[in-house]
Amino acid sequence: MPLVEERTLENPRIGVGSGSPLFGRCAPHNPFRARLGPRPRPGRDAPHRPLPSAGLGAPGAAAAARAPAMLATPAAPLLQLLLLLGPRLEAAGVAEPPLPAVVLAILARNAEHSLPHYLGALERLDYPRARLALWCATDHNVDNTTEMLQEWLAAVGDDYAAVVWRPEGEPRSYPDEEGPKHWTKERHQFLMELKQEALTFARDWGADYILPDTAASDQAAAACGGPDAGLSDLLLQFLVWDHPPGVSAHVCNEHRYGYMNVPVKSHQGLEDERVNFIHLILEALVDGPPMWASAHVSRPPKRPSKMGFDEVFVISLARRPNRRERMLSSLWEMEISGRLVDAVDGRTLNSSVMRSLGVDLLPGYQDPYSGRTLTKGEVGCFLSHYSIWEEVVARGLAQVVVFEDDVRFESNFKMRLEWLMKEVEAEKLPWDLIYLGRKQVNPEEEAAVEGLPHLVVAGYSYWTLAYVLSLAGARKLLASQPLRRMLPVDEFLPIMFDQHPNEQYKAHFWPRDLRAFSARPLLAAPTHYAGDAEWLSDTETSSPWDDDSGRLVSWSGSYKTLRDPRQDLAGSSGHSLHPHPQDEL
After folding, report:
1. I need a surface site. Which of 188, 216, 224, 530 has the fewest CB within 10 A?
2. d(CA 252, CA 243)
3. What tens digit of pLDDT does each residue of 455-508 get?
4. How many Cβ atoms sit within 10 Å of the Cβ of residue 191?
């Protein structure tokens, strides 16, 4: 029998009205929520206890206030009446009706990787827990899901109006199951039985709504509700599935309310789903809101590594703490041990400092698209990479990875990079530099490396956001003495492997024998491009290299930072880009 812990709860429908729930009607065919049985009678079917009333300033009121804007004509007369009379009732001291009572059905199976984040999202719901009941079921687990859910309920269960805990016994498989991710007919049948049990409990409890299968099922849900999402916001989204006839509804995609994990194939295992979920976390760190895990759940320990490299460098400006924090969080989630390198801030440079460093401009250099000269931001960027090359040589590091702090990682980045380097080593390929993320400039298809299907010979490329560098490669870069004839670092590297189209620039450097390759498909891309709302560049928004006035100039027209709408010829998910005349601003 399931363990039921039920707190004293007044009739959740008192004051809501006799016809419809507060947020509109709900027909039985609605797949997201269900209208729940006959209404309990006050004083007979449900015990009483004072509950917090919901004024227009209470949690969920903001969502309710938006309802008329979502529906072209009135769909819930009671809701509109409350919105109109709310301030008058409040001024007169009249108590407003409580918010709807809601049952959340949590069905979890083999969800150790995602369950802490889902539970964290539940904790952040902007809705009174005294109006929520939890119906929790878990079964057939081969991981730590049961213990996690039990630990969480022990910590927060008393905050909710009621808790039902329905665990399954020993782990077992379904007949004809290919693996823990395989949905057999028997598994579907058992899931429907669990949902029916939850629905029965919700009716008996007197709930206004039930949100069935709200999470932690291994099949789909990763987390529901962003950190500021109220339960009312979630309910309002469902109105589009159940609006009255003749009433037009509108969907707004301006806000993120949650995330869905990519489901794995029936033959795949828990590790495959964990990899997908880690990538989902990384995407949320970039696009927001981030998915923070519950602090009330014990999670498996992380074991960061350097992936077989001698060092993993992360170049980051100290005055960009948000980017730094996001980057460190991303590496932590992927279990990569990185070392921060404070970037040289171009804003702190002046002519005397650059002269003392021996920095001078490459004669005749101009940005190939905007025609501008070198910026102080580009000088700072070059000096940041240059300091890493010096450390590689000074310490004799055989191979390192270099990241900038605006990297968006592709799915399964760590394992794919480790496999790539194993393949390179097995083929005994002599190499100096391998791009992990870049912008391919020329449209011609690049030559594949024999025996290495995931590697191509690099052509003219932009960006230095992620690359692998060998000790021999660092020595070659330093030997060319680039500070005395500086240009942007992503223009310098193609010169050194003799793929830059400007012969005048190349004439200043010799030998140009850097052995450069690129991952295919690419393993990293920029977090944002020019034109994106969150785009920020400390090289493009910077003063000219010899301007000590302190003014900032935006060079946002540079082609380098624009997104090309076409996918590259090598099939790198659209991140290796080709030039097009219309890309120029």
Report:
1. 188
2. 16
3. 999 999 999 999 999 999 999 999 999 999 999 999 999 999 999 999 999 999
4. 18
CB–CB of 492/482 below 8 Å? yes
Can you state the angle between helices 489-496 and 471-479, rounded to 10 degrees? 100
Distances (CA, A) of 318 to 136, 329, 389, 525: 45, 16, 20, 22
Sign of CA dihedral 367, 371, 374, 377: negative
Question: Alpha-carbon torsion 548, 549, 550, 551, what sign?
Answer: negative
**Three-state DSSP class for residue 420:** helix
Record the pTM: 0.75
- Distances in Å between the Cα of 104 and the Cα atoms of 122, 293, 570 are 10, 19, 46
In the structure encoding, which two tokens stand for residue 416, read together?
């794919």
β-strands 339-342, 311-316 pairing: parallel
Residue count of the chain? 585
Instruction: Assign 141 a pLDDT band (cuts: 50, 70, 90).
Output: confident
Is the backbone of residue 194 left (phi > 0), alpha (psi -120 to 50) or beta? alpha
DSSP string covering 20-40: S-TT----TT-SS----SSPP
Q: DSSP assignment, residue 71? A: B
Residue the block writes with tokens 């003219």: 460
- DSSP reduced 3-state for 506: helix
At 169, list the tokens: 């016994």
Integer Cα distance of 548 and 349 in angstroms? 8
Residues of the chain with CATH 3.90.550: 311-583
Three-state SS at 412: coil
Is the CATH number of domain 311-583 1.10.10? Answer: no
> What tokens were used for 165?
């805990």
Query: What's the pLDDT tens digit per position in 43-66?
Result: 333 333 332 333 322 333 333 333
Tokens encoding 448: 């594949």
Is the pLDDT at 87 greater than 70? The verdict is: no
Name the 3-class secondary structure at 253.
coil
Among 425, 421, 538, residue whose Cα is nearest residue 488: 538
Tell me the C-alpha distance between 222 and 218, whole Å: 8
Q: How far apart are CA 36 and CA 236, in angstroms?
A: 18
CB-based burial of residue 283 (10 Å sphere; 0-12 exposed, 13-18 middle, 19+ buried)? Answer: middle
CA-closest candidate to residue 156, choices 117, 125, 119: 119
Residues 6+ apart with CB under 8 A from 396: 471
The span from the CA of 540 to the CA of 556, in Å, is 6
Confidence of residue 40 (pLDDT cuts 50, 70, 90): very low
Give the ranges where 410-470 is alpha helix by DSSP (H). Answer: 413-426
Contact indicator for 222, 279 with CB cutoff of 8 Å: no
Beta bridge partners of 190: none
Report d(CA 100, CA 161) in Å as an integer. Answer: 12
CB atoms within 10 A of CB 159: 14
Instruction: Tell me if 53 sits within 8 A of 99, measured CB to CB.
Output: no
